[in-house]
Amino acid sequence: MPIQVLMPQLGESVTEGTITKWLKASGEAVEEYEPLLEVNTDKVDSEIPSPASGVLLDILVNEGATVQAGALLAWIGEPGESPSKGAPAEPAQAAAEASPVSARAAPPPIGGSPALSAGRDRDLGFISPVVARMAAEHKIDLSQVPGTGQGGRITKKDLLAYLERAGSAAAPIPSPLPAIPSPISPIPSPSSPTPSPLSSEILPLSAVRRSIAEHMVHSKHTSPHVTTVMEVDMSRVVAHREAHKAAFARDGANLTFTAYFIAAAVAALRTFPLVNSSWSDQGILLHRSINIGMATSLGEEGLIVPVIKNADGLSLLGLSRAINDLATRARAKKLQPDEVKGGTFTLTNHGISGSLFATPIINQPQCGILGVGVLQKRVVVISHKTLGDTIAIRPMVYVSLTFDHRILDGASGDHFLMKVVETLQGWD
User: Fold this and answer.
1) Omega into 365 within 30° of 0, i.e. cis?
2) Closest CA to 324 of 394, 410, 258
3) Who's near 382: CB < 8 A, 6+ residues apart?
4) Is the overall model pTM greater than 0.85, yes or no?
5) 391 with 248, same domain?
6) Which residues, 6+ apart, have CB-to-CB distance to 77 below 8 Å?
7) Which long-range contacts (CB under 8 A, 24 or more apart) does 138-142 make?
8) What tens digit of pLDDT does each residue of 177-205 get?
């Protein structure tokens, strides 16, 4: 009896995934629990194991397609068996109807007329909230978009392809409601350049790069960004690390400067809880948990932000272990989708590439992001009550806070960053 291969629920808030790679071909033997395919959800690549031993009889979803949790992906059985006809649509239908996201749960578009809501409408099959939101933002008539998903469902990839083909000439959806004027004038979208065959080439966008681009553009269009910069004398931190890194290593943890910066951010978030918040139309949402995201480079593929949950409950040793674990698994593509969600504040250490200071983009829907520059020895003036001013060489670093100006003003942002500075400079 053939066995179904279904798209699993890869996290509490993950309802769909993109098939990035089939690790087995049709007709190839597979063992139970052997990796069968790779799925990408919000920049996290996960290997899906085979539910049974046998032969991969038929692959129903091609690489690059986005499907709902519970959708039928393939059949596994004995050589010569035939998968049941007409069965593929049922799991996909059930997954769509069982999805916790409905038309009422989908957020309305901001500053524009509503397009198709998430759910079932106009005989288009299931429309995910992501597709509905993109259609609303670009005023796309989804009946004009060919669907390549399960049962002809329109996926995010289909909509992006349609936008690339149509450019700025996408057909708007007539709306019976008057358009809501936007307080910000829309930025005109430049036409795609035509590459010269002699000097240019098109590099295909990976799922990670596409996701990064969407997050960055969304953040800049959502929050008014303000950045404040201060510098830190890291003498005490450097001395503490030198004195304790061997002991940490014996406990299985690599004591990096990142642990100190996260600990300092936690101390500042405790003192100024308004920074540990998100903006909403109903009011400012204060988060009880302090969950610190740490931007982790994946090389040319981009970056990912795994989250240290309840960071305020961890010691320096606990933070070091969490940092080592998440960073290692992030680079090995072993993170789970829920491990990149739920962050309330983010740290990015751009100094690892030699940057002095930067103006990072806020990781929505958070209030702020702490940037850390390169640690380098500099000549500074030290003021002493008795000795007066003296010149000394100190290990210095620039730190920056980019914050949502809807939530914080300049003074409150400076007070938070000063607490970070005081914590590091006064490290005991």
Assistant:
1) yes
2) 258
3) 389, 390, 391, 392, 394
4) no
5) yes
6) 1, 2, 3, 54, 55, 57, 83
7) 138/163, 138/170, 139/112, 139/113, 139/115, 139/170, 139/171, 139/172, 139/173, 140/115, 140/170, 140/171, 140/172, 140/173, 141/115, 141/170, 141/171, 141/172, 141/173, 142/115, 142/116
8) 444 444 444 555 555 556 655 688 888 88
414 catalytic per annotation: no
d(CA 5, CA 28): 15
Residue at 129 is within a domain: no
Q: What CATH number does the domain containing 294 carry? A: 3.30.559.10
The residue among 63, 98, 133 that closes a domain is 98
Annotated catalytic residue, options 287, 405, 415, 428: 405
Evaluate whether residue 330 is within a structural domain: yes
Q: Are 60 and 72 in contact (CB under 8 A)?
A: yes
Domain that holds residue 316: 215-425
φ and ψ of 105, to 5 deg: -80, -20
Q: What is the pLDDT of residues 202-256, one digit of tens each?
A: 888 877 788 889 889 999 999 999 999 999 999 999 999 999 999 999 999 999 9
* Strand segments (E) across 266-363: 277-280, 283-286, 292-294, 296-297, 303-304, 307-308, 345-348
- Which one is catalytic: 409, 414, 415, 428? 409
409 has catalytic annotation: yes
If you compute the radius of gyration of the chain from its CA atoms, what whole number of angstroms results? 25
Residue 92 belongs to domain with CATH number: 2.40.50.100
pLDDT at 100: 38
Does residue 119 sit within a domain? no
Helix (H) or strand (E) holding 181: none
Cβ atoms of residues 346 and 295 within 8 Å:
yes
391 contacts 369 by C-beta, under 8 angstroms: no
Structure tokens at 363: 């990781």
CA angle 171, 109, 220 (to 5 degrees): 100
